[in-house]
Amino acid sequence: MQLNKGPLAYIYNLSLNSGVFPGIWKTAKAKPLYKKGDKCDMKNYRPLSIIPVFAKLLERLMYNMIISFLYENKILSEAQNGFRKGKAIDTVVQSFIGRIQKALDKRVHTIGIFIYLTKAYDVLNHDL
What we know:
Strand content: 5-15%
Number of strands: 2
Low-confidence stretches: none
Number of helices: 3
Structural class: mainly alpha
């Protein structure tokens, strides 16, 4: 994929062809974003990264190219619902209910295991 001529298009094409993201665009300003609870407790904030607009545009170009590749080559499983057009939690729930109904019709024991992680990103080892 080649973009039209111009300095920004040149930078984007160079980045896409070389696989190198411009270092200066990797810098973000972090702003604390309040979630809920006591506003004096720092655990109730999460960082919001503000990146340059040119970096956002390059990320969107890369995203579009990767998604196109994944769809064209049928790499994603139909069970993959996150970050896909036309799929959401509703489709997962409908699929799950359908599987339960089929199992019940066949008189097969069915089990569901659900895990909900509160503050999931807070329990990750960020050093990794």
